[in-house]
Design brief:
alpha/beta, binds phosphoric acid mono(formamide)ester, Aspartate carbamoyltransferase, Asp/Orn_carbamoyltranf_P-bd, pyrimidine biosynthesis, Asp_carbamoyltransf, amino acid binding
Length: 310
Amino acid sequence: KKSIIDPMDLSVEEISDLLDLANDIMKDRTRYQDVAKHKILATLFFEPSTRTRLSFESAMLSLGGSVLGFPNANVSSATKGESVTDTIWTVSCYSDIIAMRHPKEGAPRVAMRRSKVPLINAGDGGHNHPTQTLTDLLTIQREKGRLNNLTVGFCGDLKFGRTVHSLLKALSRYEGVKFVFISPEELKLPEYLKEDLLDAKHLEYKEVRTMEEVMGELDILYMTRVQQERFFNEQDYLRLRDTYILDLNKLELAKKDLTIMHPLPRVNEISTEVDDDPRACYFKQVENGRYVRMALILTLLSLDHEVERL
Ligand code: CP
């Protein structure tokens, strides 16, 4: 069984195959409606979610499979003190594949070792969110027609933002991608990612404090929410939360074909007046998330060649 805990668990070739499959499903998803019949997806979410959980469930139901899970972690035996590993072993007796979100970094990797079925990390603390990364890569590929030769700006909470960390790792493997990190000093990208990834691979990047000074250079602008749930101090959160707000004035400085992305949920960091701008792609990301998760479920269950491609 193969599990997906980190975006680097997938090779560039495997990512390409997954994106091809997601694109094929998008052409006419009814062709895939019975492929996972009799298969069960378990969703184990120890943190809140709207998109990831519902898109996983929608994906499995769209493939003809079934879904089980707790409405929230408070009604599971975890509240009686059961360990994550015992919980996962139990759930893997009742399902064919598991999607798991947990506030502790590394929890899905520990859980994976006790699971009898493939386990997908649906977000672990400020660490990784590999299926959001697949969603983001599909969106970039569909919008730009490529995953290489891009200048990608990440803006906001680069310290705690797991979607940033995961997408950065994935994009670091494509030729000619340059990175621009826009954040306050307190929310800079963690040093380990700079040293072990960007510096180690001699990748081109810079860190700046304002959006305005780099807006015109960017092909992709990836906005993020300041992650309130990871702060120890409420005052720090309140001081930093509105550092960056993308509005139509700032967009006047941007390229005409900029792609604006956000994993969502947003709080205040993209003004709603931007939603109607043709460059706004964050609602397309939401839609793409369902198809990429269908592709991932099919691949991990070895059902990816059951339907002839269009
Ligand atoms: N993008 C994302 O992970 O959204 P949710 O927290 O709503 O799942």
